[in-house]
């Protein structure tokens, strides 16, 4: 799971660690703010299956190829994905009402990793950004396993900052 790649503004390329995870994944999720159409093209070419949405920084060409909200199943886990979810305060219950037929909501926008659950059981995941850490110690992405209707082994991966 990735979001907020912002290529080529925040980085020229995606980190090697992320490409290794993409190459190994059965499904790649991108929660918007691609910025560059070439990133979508490359992920489509390298991914076994790609699910994505557009973000607030994505222009007309990306918006013509991607939905604002995506809904899909992976191994009987019901996913929804959207770029923006609004304020962090009250997010779980607000999103549980909006996505009441969903097991997992993946979102982006803040560049801040997030893993929480609503009272009704909706799991909310934000992978952060693999290229723009903002106020976080590292750039990040998420991996997880969907199997037999269960999401497990959710892991936040930190990408170490590199200095020239």
Automatic annotation (TrEMBL):
The kind of enzyme this is, by top-level EC class, is hydrolase
- InterPro entries, per the entry: Calcineurin-like_PHP_lpxH, Metallo-depent_PP-like, Phosphodiesterase_MJ0936/Vps29
An example Gene Ontology molecular-function term:
hydrolase activity
Q: Which cofactor does it need?
A: a divalent metal cation
Q: Does the keyword Protein transport apply?
A: no
Looking at the record's lineage, which domain of life comes first?
Bacteria
Q: Where's the Calcineurin-like phosphoesterase domain?
A: 2-144
* EC numbers, comma separated: 3.1.4.-
UniProtKB keywords: Metal-binding
Its family remark reads:
Belongs to the metallophosphoesterase superfamily. YfcE family.
Which protein is depicted?
Phosphoesterase
Could you read off the lineage of the organism from its UniProt record? Bacteria, Bacillati, Actinomycetota, Actinomycetes, Micrococcales
């Amino acid at each position: 799971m990735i979001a907020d790649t912002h290529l080529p503004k925040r980085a020229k390329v995606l980190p090697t660690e992320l490409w290794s995870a993409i190459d190994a994944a059965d499904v790649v999720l991108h929660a918007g703010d691609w910025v560059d159409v070439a990133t979508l093209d490359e992920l489509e070419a390298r991914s076994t299956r790609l699910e994505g949405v557009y973000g607030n920084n994505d222009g007309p060409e990306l918006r013509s190829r991607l939905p604002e909200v995506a809904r899909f199943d992976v191994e009987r886990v019901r996913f929804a994905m959207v770029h923006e979810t609004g304020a962090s305060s009250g997010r779980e219950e607000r999103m549980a009402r909006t996505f009441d037929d969903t097991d997992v909501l993946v979102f982006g926008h803040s560049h801040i990793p997030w893993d929480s659950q609503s009272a009704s059981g909706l799991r909310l995941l934000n992978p952060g950004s693999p290229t723009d850490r903002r106020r976080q110690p590292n750039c990040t992405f998420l991996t997880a396993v969907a199997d037999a209707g269960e999401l497990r082994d959710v892991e936040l991966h930190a990408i170490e900052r590199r200095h020239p």
